[in-house]
Design a protein that fits this description.
The protein is an alpha/beta fold. It is built from twelve helices and 13 strands. β4, α3 and β5 form a beta-alpha-beta unit.
């Protein structure tokens, strides 16, 4: 969100950004001419914010952007006069099935879907065509009020790609949680390694882990006799991200994604992806251009595709080249901010609030 806020401020918008606090954070501060208010915690802001809004913030704005990083702030329940723009990166309904067992998972999923439906009549911005289609087709949002602005990248897109610097290493890059199906990446790698008959490593680089799930992955590595070949590594900062360029291919077996930004980050370093053919990943991966799709949830098919790609040097070289060319034409935060502003103008004009 900050990527939009700072650029809109440079266009002379007066912005107040309200979000949850954290230990050591100031309750109020100005940053680059943006008023930042941090209140309570991520666990209770949803319950306390409506009262705070009515007492301190109401009538101060021409438009409200209510973002759902996970759960939004329920603006339609307490604001009826000021136009609301709903900003949603992804729809997290399926996550509940992986986080909790039945029937708790179904209860949380039902509540979550009811929350999203509150914004059905709002102008909405999302990051992918898949999420737009899901909002319109499943949640009955108005199609002409839902706009897609793809995610841009925070890393330099200009790199010298040298295929000869790559090593016999395969990559999984993302959170360690059941929905990401990291076990399928490990199983696919094991299948590939048995066929390739040469030394390869699987690098699993992660910023977050589900403790019990992590233990199941380590057990799987032991069962497949891959302890010397699978390396678990903590997340890399943007400054350290260059280190991944030595990997040859990214395995992307997620059950559901909301854009697959990690794939595009890998493409910057000439790393194509092999992915399950699920609806939501199609926004960032173009089959045969910056990766190859395989039958969903079939780790053997993933391992077989990995084997065929790396066996044919010419196919692999072409895929590395097309992956990098694909990302060089990607959107920028500047062009995204212009699209964001155009949507704000459209909303303000419709509600006759433009000043």
């Amino acid at each position: 969100m900050w990527n939009y806020i700072k650029r809109l401020q440079q266009k002379w918008y007066q912005i107040t950004w309200v979000w949850s606090g954290f230990p050591g954070a100031k309750e109020k501060e100005d940053k680059e001419w943006v008023e930042i208010i941090r209140i309570w915690s991520i666990n209770n802001i949803y319950f306390k914010f409506p009262k705070y809004y009515k007492e301190h913030l109401q009538w101060n704005f021409d438009v409200i952007v209510d973002e759902a990083g996970w759960i939004p702030l329920f603006a339609p329940l307490f604001e009826k006069d000021i136009p609301i723009i709903f900003l949603i990166h992804h729809i997290s309904d399926i996550e509940w099935d992986f986080k909790y067992s039945f029937p708790i998972s179904k209860v949380f999923k039902y509540i979550y879907r009811k929350i999203i439906s509150l914004y059905r009549n709002c102008y909405t911005i999302t990051v992918s065509q898949s999420t737009k289609e899901e909002l319109v087709g499943v949640y009955w949002f108005e199609k002409n009020k839902v706009f897609e602005i793809e995610n841009a990248l925070d890393i330099d897109l200009n790199h010298n790609i040298d295929i000869h610097e790559k090593k016999n290493e395969i990559l999984f890059f993302g959170r360690i949680m059941p929905m990401k199906r990291v076990e399928h990446a490990i199983q696919a790698f094991g299948y590939f390694k048995n066929k390739m008959k040469s030394d390869y490593k699987l690098n699993i680089i992660w910023p977050f882990q589900d403790g019990s799930y992590m233990e199941s992955l380590r057990k799987l590595v032991q069962e497949l006799d891959l302890e010397k070949d699978v390396v678990f590594q903590w997340w890399l900062s943007l400054e350290e991200r260059e280190k991944i360029h030595k990997n040859k291919v990214l395995l992307f077996p997620s059950h559901k994604e909301w854009y697959g930004l990690v794939v595009l980050e890998a493409n910057v370093y000439g790393i194509p992806a092999i992915w399950y053919d699920v609806w939501w990943v199609r926004d960032s991966i173009k089959d045969g251009i910056n990766g190859f799709r395989v039958e969903k949830h079939n780790f053997k098919a993933m391992g077989e595709k990995l084997y065929r790609v790396l066996q044919d040097e010419e196919v692999y070289k072409q895929l590395v080249t097309s992956s990098y060319e694909h990302i060089k034409n990607h959107t920028t935060w500047e062009s995204n901010a212009d699209m964001f502003e155009n949507i704000i103008k459209k909303v303000l004009e419709e509600y006759d609030r433009w000043v």
